[in-house]
Amino acid sequence: MELLFLGTRGEVKTRSKRHWMHSSLLVTDGIGRIMIDCGGDWKNQIKRLAPDSIVLTHAHPDHAAGLKDGAPCPVFATNDTWERLKRYAISDRRLIFPHRPFHIGSIVFEAVPVEHSLRAPAVGFRVRQDERNGIFYVPMWL
Description:
Elements: E1 2-7, E2 24-28, E3 33-36, H1 46-49, E4 53-55, H2 61-64, E5 75-77, H3 79-84, E6 93-95, E7 102-104, E8 107-114, E9 122-128, E10 135-137
Parallel strand pairs: 3-4, 4-5, 5-6
Antiparallel strand pairs: 1-2, 2-3, 7-8, 8-9, 9-10
């Protein structure tokens, strides 16, 4: 499993070399490409990145607005997130449930509720390929 941090910037105007694009992580297993979060900065970059799937932590613009006009692949999110994105033109919506692992290719994701926002409840993801290894990806909260 390989990880590539595509962006680390939240919904702030200030940008720097280290925080240029909205937060996003690309997870690859040598076969598939899974993008975690797709903020507004990524709207015109999705085709170039060519993800096979997109997984969302929550519905804030810096994590989901890149999908407002649709997605070229399946998008996975909780019911709370889908409720807040019901006007988004995403045709292949996949529902995920907290603490219920799901597979995308050889990668296992498990959504874990985290404290982030009352308006857009969020989850972090335990991401792994086997029982021994893995990471936990969580949207930053202040």
